[in-house]
Every structure is written in structure tokens, then in C-alpha cells.
Amino acid sequence: MTLLSNHILLIEDDAIDLALLENILDEFVSGEISCFSSSIEALAYIQSGKVERIDLLVCDWQMPEVNGIDILQQFRIHY
Fold first, then answer.
1. pLDDT tens digits, the chain, 79 residues: what are they?
2. Is-contact 71 42, C-beta < 8 A?
């Protein structure tokens, strides 16, 4: 059963948690799920201007390079 058709950005630095979350979302979401294990790469993706829209952001708060609050601040600026 598909509930949504959107673009989701998933950021999680733990590889096992990232894979688990991606599998769960994939069960309920039709559309694109962009996954990042690096907060630096995710931040660059958000700031790139190449993405038209992101409908949902799922983000770890405690990451070594860039924390979730900084990611959220940049997300709000760009979207």
C-alpha cells in the first residue's frame, strides 16, 4: 500500500540505521528517497540548488561533521 508520492531526504550517519530507515520508507513512499550517510554531502546537496523540492526531511540530530540543527537551518533557507 503506497501512502505518499514525494521526494524524501534521509540523513543518517550510521549505515545500519540508514539502511533500516530507507527500507521502512520505501515500503510506504512512492517517489524518490535521497539517502546520505555524510552530513557534509547532505548539506552540499541541500545548498546546491539542483533539487526542486524536498517534501520530507528525516535527519539524525547528532552527527560528527554537521549536526541536524545546522542541516535544518540550511533546509529552511533553501526550501
1. 555 578 999 999 999 999 999 999 999 888 999 999 999 999 999 999 888 889 999 999 999 999 999 999 999 998 8
2. yes
